[in-house]
Every structure is written in structure tokens, then in C-alpha cells.
Design a protein that fits this description.
By secondary structure, the chain is α/β, with parallel strands linked by helices. Helices cover 50% and strands 11% of the residues. The chain has two domains: 139 residues, Response regulator (Rossmann fold); 62 residues, Arc Repressor Mutant, subunit A (Orthogonal Bundle). Strand 3, helix 3 and strand 4 form a beta-alpha-beta unit. Helix 7 crosses helix 9, helix 8 packs across helix 9 and helix 9 packs across helix 10. The protein starts with a helix and ends with a helix.
Length: 213
């Protein structure tokens, strides 16, 4: 089998997690004798791994889950995302999917459920309770088309948004744009008012959904 075929049949799975017990458990559950392995994305340049097509994200490993998902969507849009956490809470699942996840698993999911969810998401489908999928579909059908064209965003606001979706802090955005942090906060404040939201995470999600960037 040549390298291209191996990349197709033995894709590597990425993992965002910090709990060593959970990492070991997922390695054990997903070991199938094929040589497929979990790539810890905390390692330098791990996201550049060839063949990486699905990433599992432990929600307890970050305080900014929506921003992290938005960053993946921006940097590697073809990678499918599967979130672990939320314990079946409808609000959590809806927010994760709205932010770009293709599925959500609870921490108490069985080994079979984990393996099945990985295969379903890899195949391009969504892993979530049917009631929630139905609710999201109804909401999408009832919602008016995005009105991004009606919202005027300045060039600088778009630059701030791009950096926000890459997961940068206010200080890092200010450094990248060579401006004061107060200026960044002012831009974010105006963007939040235009989006009708009150925090950075909601702003990032809205910007992606409304196709502002």
C-alpha cells in the first residue's frame, strides 16, 4: 500500500485534552490495530500533521470552547470537530454545533459510543440527539438570510475579528496591529453592539454564522 492510500485508510485523529487519564482512555478506546493514533495538539506544529481529518476536543481543557472551535474552522476548515462534554445539556450541544462542532459526546459515553461517534463524524454526518438536530434544523429554516451586507464593518474591525477567531487575546491583537489594548477593546465593543452580543465568544460565533469573515 502506498503512502497516499495509507493516508486515506489510516487517518490520524487529533486530540485537545489535558487530563492524562482521559487521554489514556481515549487512546485505548480508539486503538484498533491499524496504526491509527491520537495526535496531541498541544505539541508544536501538531495541527500541521498530514492526514489529520478529525479532532476530539475535551471541553474541560479550555475555558473558551467556542473560540477554539472557531479557530479550527478558520485555520483548518476541512477538519471535523467532535466535542466531549456538556453531559447532554441541550444548550451546550446547540452552542458547540453552532460554533462548528460536528458532534458532541458526554464524558460518560461508552467505548462503543465514542467509536461510533468518531466514524459518524468522519463520514460527514452529525452526532447529536435527534431532538436537538431537529430544533437546529427548524431554527435554520425559520431564520432570515444573514444580513452581513447590511452591517458596515471597517477594515480595522475585520482585522480585529480575524485575530479574535484565531484565539488571540486583546493584548496579542493589540501587539499584532500595533495599537493600544484600549483601542482593541473599543473595536470589540462596537463589534459586539453590531452583533447584538455581550461577550467575545458570542461575537466569534455570530461572526462565523453571519459570514462576516
Amino acid at each position: 500500500m502506498n503512502e497516499a492510500e495509507q493516508g486515506k485508510t489510516l487517518p490520524q485523529l487529533g486530540l485537545v485534552a489535558t487530563d492524562e487519564v482521559r487521554i489514556a482512555g481515549l487512546r485505548s478506546v480508539l486503538a484498533d490495530g491499524s496504526g491509527r493514533d491520537l495526535v496531541l495538539l498541544s505539541e508544536p506544529k501538531a495541527l500541521e500533521t498530514s492526514g489529520l481529518e478529525l479532532v476530539l476536543v475535551d471541553s474541560s481543557a479550555t475555558e473558551h470552547l467556542q473560540e477554539l472551535l472557531a479557530t479550527f474552522r478558520s485555520m483548518r476548515p476541512k477538519i471535523r470537530l467532535l466535542v466531549i462534554g456538556g453531559e447532554g445539556e441541550p444548550g451546550f450541544i446547540e452552542q458547540a454545533i453552532a460554533a462548528g462542532a460536528r458532534g458532541v459526546l458526554s464524558f460518560t459515553a461508552s467505548a462503543d459510543e465514542v467509536r461510533m461517534a468518531v466514524e459518524v463524524v468522519r463520514d460527514g454526518s452529525v452526532w447529536a440527539p435527534r431532538k436537538i438536530l431537529s430544533r437546529l434544523l427548524d431554527r435554520a429554516n425559520d431564520a432570515p438570510p444573514p444580513a452581513a451586507a447590511e452591517v458596515h464593518l471597517t477594515r480595522r474591525e475585520l482585522e480585529v475579528l480575524d485575530l479574535l477567531l484565531l484565539g488571540l487575546s486583546n493584548r496579542e491583537i493589540a501587539h499584532a496591529l500595533e495599537v493600544e489594548q484600549a483601542t482593541v477593546k473599543a473595536h470589540l465593543g462596537r463589534l459586539m453592539r453590531k452583533a447584538g452580543v455581550t461577550n467575545r465568544t458570542a461575537l466569534g460565533v455570530h461572526a462565523m454564522e453571519a459570514k462576516w469573515v
